[in-house]
Amino acid sequence: MTTIDETLRGAWIVQEHSLRVLESVVRACEADGVAVLPVKGILSARTLYADVAERVISDIDVRVRKGDVERVERIARREGWTLVNRMWSYDNLVLRVDGRFVDVEAHVGPPGVCALTIDTMMSRASLERRTFGFPALVADPHDHAVLLLVNAFKDHMATAMSWAIDDLVRLIRAPWFDESVLLERARAAKVETIVWIVAEWMSRFMSDEAWGALRDRIGPPPRTAFASAHLWLESHKRELPLRVLSRFASDRPRLWLSAASHLAAWQVEVWWSQLGPRAWRRGVTSPPHPR
Q1: So what's the pLDDT on residue 4?
Q2: Does pTM surpass 0.70?
Q3: Cα-atom radius of gyration of the chain, to the nearest Å?
Q4: DSSP per-residue letters across 59-99
Q5: Is the pLDDT at 283 greater than 80, yes or no?
Q6: Residue 271 has what pLDDT?
Q7: Strand ranges of the sheet holding 37-39, from the earlier edge strand across to the other edge
Q8: Cα–Cα distance for residue pair 117/137, rounded to 1 Å
Q9: In degrees rounded to 5, what are phi and psi of residue 101?
Q10: Phi, psi angle pair for 76, to nearest 5°
Q11: CB neighbours of 157 closer than 8 A, spacing ≥ 6?
């Protein structure tokens, strides 16, 4: 039987290996003038947990500016990294670097859902070495909170990874957390309804009083009918309609067309990949996986 100590040791080893991989990716990209912003598990482990071994990670998530994804692809080919997956419709690629998967994206959540841009996140990020042990951009904590909330919403909280939910439990209790700042950022990003839905789900299904208080602070969500429909689909596990409806979650209606078109393009790309290898995929080693 695996002991808790052995489990934590294994998680720590993965974290440390991932940190070395992240450093190599950051250095290679910065040498070509591409800024890299680490997000999600690799950052949460160092900002929300007392011990990084408490935070499981399955891959290394980074964000780059829109337009830099292709430059990262060229860097990957030069460095000899494996290009595992390339989704043109989502400005996304997955690399394998020294045995670890690195997920590179240029958006906060699916395109068209959140108005917070990577450019804005980078403008508020700090360049420091304390967090990772080498010079790297570290996202403003409330910007990163918005990203984590949108990501949990995208993954439909009931089916999200357990550690993503644990991030939310810790996030709202972090010493730096200021709900006024979070709500200000959420309104600017046009995702206040998303934050309300996540807060309601955390309160209702996780019995989390802190998230319930945040939900009450918001009051009625900006889009009450949407929130009700989404929570109903979530509770009844209606995956396909939930995926489609989620793309219309922004509180800015003019983003809906962009989100819908990216979803349609993604579905076409998935179908196309299933027809077999195509020259335009240029060395991608596996077909796109569902998002």
Answers
A1: 60
A2: yes
A3: 19
A4: SEEEE--TT-HHHHHHHHHHHT-EEEEEEGGGTEEEEEETT
A5: no
A6: 87
A7: 37-39, 60-63, 100-105, 92-97, 82-87
A8: 15
A9: -85, 135
A10: -60, -40
A11: 165, 198, 201, 202, 205, 234
**pLDDT at site 158:** 81
Q: Read off the pLDDT of residues 117-140 as tens digits, 9 standing for 90 and up.
A: 999 999 999 999 999 999 999 999
Secondary structure letter of residue 241 according to DSSP:
H
Q: Report residue 186 as tokens.
A: 């959420």
Mean pLDDT along residues 37-65 = 96
**Are the C-beta atoms of residues 6 and 90 closer than 8 Å to each other?**
no
**Single-letter residue type at 250:** S
Helix 209-218 and helix 179-188, axial crossing angle in degrees, nearest 10: 50
With residue 104 as reference, give the H or E element that holds it.
strand 100-105
**Contacts with 209 (C-beta within 8 Å, 6 or more apart), sequence order:** 203
Asked whether the predicted pLDDT for residue 171 surpasses 60, the reply is: yes
- CA-nearest of 101, 66, 59, 107 to 84 is 101
Report the sign of the C-alpha dihedral through residues 200, 206, 207, 213, in that order: negative
Element housing 121 (H / E): helix 118-124
Q: How many Å apart are CA 94 and CA 247, to the nearest integer?
A: 22
Structure tokens at 278: 């195509």
DSSP character at residue 286: S
- Structure token digits, residue 160: 């999200």
In the block, residue with structure tokens 């019995």 = 207
Higher pLDDT pick, 98 / 160: 98
State the Cα–Cα distance between residues 9 and 3, nearest whole angstrom: 10
